[in-house]
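Data deposition worksheet. Section B asks for the primary sequence of the deposited chain exactly as it was used as input, without tags or linkers unless they were present during the calculation. Section C holds the resulting structure in token form. Section D is free text for depositor observations; keep each observation to a single sentence. Incomplete worksheets are returned to the depositor.
Section A, Depositor: J.P.
Section B:
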Amino acid sequence: RHHFSSELQRMSVVARVEGGDEDVAAGRVLVLAKGSPEAIATLLRDMPAGYHRAYRALAREGARVLALAYRPLEANAASSAGVREAPRAEHESSLLFAGFAVFGCPMKAASAPTLREIGAGGHRLLMIT
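Section C:
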């Protein structure tokens, strides 16, 4: 529904649950969001204790971290028309924190020597994500 925006550092979808469990009933409609921990933090209804400390510690260790969040939609908002008409800001508000998705991205053995050689050649090194 709401494509990834590099400016907003997040994306979200509206989905109907097919197989429910004790937490979410089948047929329930949810807003599911993922994005940078900083961006998702501004949209959470309640900030979990240690949220910032946890993702920063993971990032310092070289992990790529995404925050995951969701919000159940009320029946009237979950109708097809309600989903289409609701603005992004409405869908992506009062989200509930679901966790972090953490991805390892280890450096290749040849990376450090290669970067040193490039730097020694007078080139400026930058990392662009």
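Section D:
The domain at 2-120 is CATH 3.40.1110.10 (Calcium-transporting ATPase, cytoplasmic domain N).
The first helix runs from residue 37 to 41.
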